[in-house]
Specification:
The chain is mainly alpha-helical. It has 11 helices and no strands. α3 (60-76) packs antiparallel against α4 and α9 packs antiparallel against α10 (203-218).
Length: 251
């Protein structure tokens, strides 16, 4: 009996010494983004006991694939609440897979929003409210993804497109496109940002748009949209004639 107690005491001591080391190692791996964060209780409750056990067993990717397929089924059934719920599970299980965030946002900001807006069974006020709410839901999904993946050019690009094409917020669209430019250094995205800054009501943003487009012009990237926008901005900003680009000659 005495030996059993001694053995138990040794195990408890070793376990107590081992736990801080394991916790420190786990914390380091998560900070280095080499290990996914733990699932919260709401996710555990949603995916059920078997799914949660599988996720703890390192099968998050498999469980995420299942919830992704369930989201697809919900989409074919035009059940937007379930689409959102299943994508929430999917992104929680695989938070560093950017395409899950991108598709989750697309379903809300485009598919669900348009479906509600075109639903003749709803009155006009309700349709517009649901349309706006689901666009905002798409934006919120992207922001949550970007909180985890701040250097995802894909998510920043989708956010810019959503602000530009869905909620019609040019300044926010431009800021998002500038993030894509920061990450990729592709002048195409600087121009997209400039086009959005140019249509705001803020003269300081007109100047920012002009500087971005002039930089592209000086680097010999001169699509027709750039030339016409620069000419418009030269008028708005009253750029001195000697500093203006040559007039665009039509063929």
């Amino acid at each position: 009996m005495k030996r059993k107690l001694q053995a138990l005491l040794v195990l408890l001591i070793l376990g107590g010494l081992k736990l801080p080391v394991e916790q420190a190692a786990t914390r380091y791996l998560r900070e280095a983004k080499l290990l996914s964060p733990p699932l919260d209780m709401s996710v555990r409750d949603s995916i059920g006991q078997m799914g949660f056990a599988a996720s703890l067993g390192g099968l998050r990717s498999l469980v995420a694939s299942i919830t992704y397929l369930q989201a697809y089924t919900a989409w074919t059934n035009v059940d937007w609440a379930k689409v959102d719920a299943y994508f929430t599970l999917t992104t929680s299980l695989q938070p560093r897979y950017e395409r899950y965030w991108d598709e989750a946002s697309w379903h809300m900001a485009y598919n669900a929003a348009s479906n509600y807006r075109n639903n003749p069974k709803l009155n006009a006020a309700v349709r517009e409210k649901l349309y706006a709410d689901h666009i905002q839901r798409g934006v919120d999904i992207l922001k949550k993804g970007l909180h985890l993946l701040p250097n995802s050019a894909l998510l920043w690009k989708t956010l810019g497109e959503t602000y530009e094409r869905r909620s019609r917020e040019p300044k926010l669209a431009a800021d998002a496109y500038m993030e894509v430019y920061r990450i990729t250094q592709r002048l195409h995205y600087a121009r997209l940002a400039a086009y959005q800054y140019a249509i705001t009501e803020d003269p300081s943003l007109w100047r920012k748009a002009y500087d971005l487009l002039k930089d592209s012009y000086d680097k010999n990237q001169r699509p027709p949209s750039l030339l016409s926008t620069i000419k418009e901005l030269e008028e708005k900003l009253k750029i001195p004639l000697p500093s203006r680009i040559p007039d665009v000659t039509k063929p």
